[in-house]
């Protein structure tokens, strides 16, 4: 470790775990995007708030940029370190610090995995409801940095709704204690909400107080086969009217084929164009009657042509795997990803325009899409042909993304629903935010991070 800047960091923090091993640099310098070659200066693993503050102050003094690192499951390049940055991994700060059953809060360090948070809440008879497929590897700090959503937004909302308090080390090295778990706090600007969704550009979350809730009543999982795209929202509207929904997800026949090839079980004898997996309360006999009435009505209207209800937890998990396994099954094909959202009421018109656009612009590429249709969020995956150069593939996809953004603007949508802007979507930030908003965002960053060391180049 011959770099004099790192020697100074080691002198300041002799117990800090620090590595320049090429394997560590490659592993911690990237997220689930694979478009940039990792090239960090080093990787640091602080074990305390004090070490995080000292690292940030050292970085300011040395002019070294910092990339905060959680589980690196992001899809927008927000955790990429490709320009000599110091990666600050929060892996070692992964403890549960406090559980308060009266306030129904759980205080944790940022490096704890989402699944571990859920398990800790469950041990106390409570629920942390934010949930998605990467729960075992994503970290709560990264969830906060991207305001992660997932599969139960229909009932519980995004991460933002469940953050009662935050401790944050700013880009200047100051420690802020934001909101302190208060339910009511009418004392001016709530800076906590600036940090949520800020993608590590303002500071590093070092502690989070999470709100918990009561576990839901017993639920039921159902998979539906849908014959046409225009029936999807009709099924959703009817499900929301008759059932108490926890989740409502859809995917296409193409998505299903990849998941089945990845080891999932085929749900129906025949193949169908679209599928819906939904979860809803099933606490009593009336809920069972409502479920049957919902299914029979949708079949009678021609919106659903087949269906299966899980008869066990194992079968429920098998049905959910059909949706949650899509991203992993597509990864070997180096997909170019769009993560877009519109208002729920605009979904049918947007989907129709989007499909027309994709058919016209990608005649030779396979496009796989799926999403959280119950909250207006669609994931579009364009699979790279094996014989096409990576750069040429990205160029063509970015051209189509520009056209897709024009469609989104017409429908009042967003180019990023839940994965952030990062590096991937930065060219289209102006489609979602006005010039005045972006100027204010830059001003906020300048106050929190006066030397511009926090995750530079991301978002702004």
From TrEMBL:
One of its GO terms (molecular function) is FAD binding. Residues 36-215 form the FAD-binding PCMH-type domain. InterPro entries: FAD-bd_oxidored_4_C (IPR004113), FAD-bd_PCMH (IPR016166), FAD-bd_PCMH-like_sf (IPR036318), FAD-bd_PCMH_sub1 (IPR016167), FAD-bd_PCMH_sub2 (IPR016169), FAD-linked_Oxase-like_C (IPR016164), FAD-oxidored/transferase_4 (IPR051264), Oxid_FAD_bind_N (IPR006094). Keywords: FAD, Flavoprotein, Oxidoreductase. One of its GO terms (biological process) is respiratory electron transport chain. It comes from the Bacteria. PROSITE patterns: FAD_PCMH (PS51387). Its cofactor is FAD. Transmembrane segments: none annotated. Belongs to the FAD-binding oxidoreductase/transferase type 4 family. This is FAD-binding oxidoreductase. It comes from Luteibacter yeojuensis.
